[in-house]
Specification:
With 414 residues, the protein is of the alpha/beta class. It folds into 3 domains: 170 residues, Molybdenum Cofactor Biosythetic Enzyme, Chain A (3-Layer(aba) Sandwich), CATH 3.40.980.10; 79 residues, 2-Layer Sandwich (Alpha-Beta Plaits); 153 residues, Maf protein, CATH 3.90.950. Helix content is 41%, strand content 23%. The protein contains 14 helices and 17 strands. The strands form 4 sheets. It has a 6-stranded mixed beta sheet with strand order 2-1-3-8-7-6, sandwiched between helices. Strands 14-13-15-16-17 form a 5-stranded mixed beta sheet, with helices on both faces. Strand 13, helix 11 and strand 14 form a beta-alpha-beta unit. Helix 2 packs parallel to helix 6, helix 3 packs across helix 4 and helix 10 runs parallel beside helix 14. The longest helix has 26 residues. The chain is globular and about 75 Å long. The protein starts with a strand and ends with a helix. 39% of the residues are buried.
């Protein structure tokens, strides 16, 4: 079965917003074995949208239309689908009540413009949106199907997973279960990973192995298996995952929806250790990521965003002459542990750019770890990219360093 993707929004054409939604939808379709041959972008223009829907449905079994379901006058996806169907729009009173109730739950009155979101092409079905005001649409057109979902990512993703994908699989006559397992890695390039597991990729059948580059989140090695039942599909994945883990070793830091910070906190919590962070070039990014993990308060004591040199000295006790140095990183980590009353202290200091600092080139970063019963450790690296990428790479690299050290202690029985 083929399902293509149509992204709606003039802002996408102007480059004001990057179309990550189409990429995500394409990834989900591939994961369940549905082919995608075309991703297209169209501005907020009714005639061009209608034409695009017709052309794409002539080539594909289904089309997912993303965006244009908002309450403003330029949100005309509903009208475009109605035009492609050759029908009018009709207002659903139950949707009006749902949208009004959502506004009421937030202590607000529903603006009159939001009534448009309760309009549905005659003969089409509503795709529920329990977390937003824009219901989706499922419409049959000449034996093909078009799905319309909002452009808000977290709304779109839930609706695609809970409604669009199951409906597509049912239409394809696919009775088997498709299960994926994502191994998240940090510390190797995509080509490096491919070389390491080439002997498995070359013989892949079921499960299949794919690589997904996630930029500042590393490289994902995804296993996808198909079987008559979910349990059988998982049984196919398990031995292959074990084999890949043996090869990749400590490069694998998490699976599926887990994050690097989740991996670190779970290890610390298992030991009963608390964590304190001292940040310089990252300016709070490390602490923000850690605090985003539910239950982080059981382990995370806090973060000192010691961006200015005098803050490093007054709050963390740094005496090092140069702030981009091994000595400064070590003093920051030890100072974080002391100032925050934590068992473990970690720190990052370096040069994010645009100019060198302390005679060190842009991208130079020092990381330090202060672990119970061990001398403070510091390591240096050179990170690529612009200022934002260096700061983001620094954040995940420091957390990964802590993860690797904690795992090493576990292996030693310490």
């Amino acid at each position: 079965m083929r399902c293509d993707v149509l992204a709606i929004g003039t802002e996408l054409l102007l480059g004001q917003i990057v179309d990550s939604n189409s990429s995500w939808i394409g990834e989900q379709l591939a994961a369940v074995g549905i082919d995608t041959m075309e991703h297209r972008k169209v501005g907020d223009n009714l005639s061009r949208m209608t034409t695009a829907i017709g052309e794409m449905l002539a080539a594909a079994d289904a089309v997912v239309v993303c965006g244009g379901l908002g309450p403003t006058q330029d949100d005309v996806t509903r009208e475009a689908i109605a035009a492609a169907m050759g029908v009018e729009l009709e207002r659903h009173d139950d949707l009006v009540a749902q949208i009004a109730a959502m506004f009421g739950s937030r202590g607000r009155d529903m603006p009159a413009n939001n009534l448009r979101q309760a309009d549905v092409p005659v003969g089409a079905e509503v795709i529920p949106n329990p977390i937003g005001t824009a219901p989706g649409i499922r419409a049959e057109i000449a034996g093909r199907v078009v799905y319309a979902v909002p452009g808000v990512p977290y709304e779109m993703q839930r609706m695609v997973i809970e409604h669009v994908l199951p409906d597509l699989l049912a239409r394809s006559g696919e009775s088997s279960a498709i299960v994926s397992r994502s191994l998240k890695t940090w510390g190797a390039s995509e080509s490096g990973l491919a070389e390491m597991i080439a002997h498995r990729v070359d013989v892949q059948t079921n499960p299949t192995i794919a690589f997904l580059a996630r930029g500042i989140e590393g490289i994902v090695v995804r296993l996808t298996a198909k079987a008559p039942t979910e349990a059988e599909a998982r049984a196919l994945i398990e031995p292959e995952e074990t084999t890949l883990r043996e090869v990749l070793g400590e490069l694998v830091f998490a699976v599926d929806d887990e994050t690097m910070e989740h991996a670190v906190l779970s290890r610390l919590e298992a030991r009963g250790w608390t964590l304190g962070v001292a940040e310089s070039l990252t300016g709070g990014l490390i602490g923000a990521r850690i605090a985003n993990v539910p239950g982080a308060s059981r382990t995370f004591r806090g973060s000192v965003a010691s961006y200015a040199t005098d803050v490093k000295r007054s709050l963390l006790g740094v005496t090092a002459e140069h702030v981009v140095s091994k000595e400064c990183a070590e003093q920051m980590a030890d100072g974080a542990r002391r100032a925050l009353g934590a068992d473990v202290g970690i720190a990052a200091t370096g040069v994010a750019g645009p100019e060198e600092q302390d005679g060190q080139p842009v991208g130079t970063v020092w990381f330090a770890l202060a672990l119970p019963g061990l001398p403070v450790e510091a390591v240096s690296t050179r990170l690529p990219g612009d200022r934002e990428r260096i700061r983001q790479f620094s954040t995940i690299s420091l957390l990964n360093l802590l993860r690797v050290r904690l795992d090493a202690l576990e292996h030693l029985g310490a």
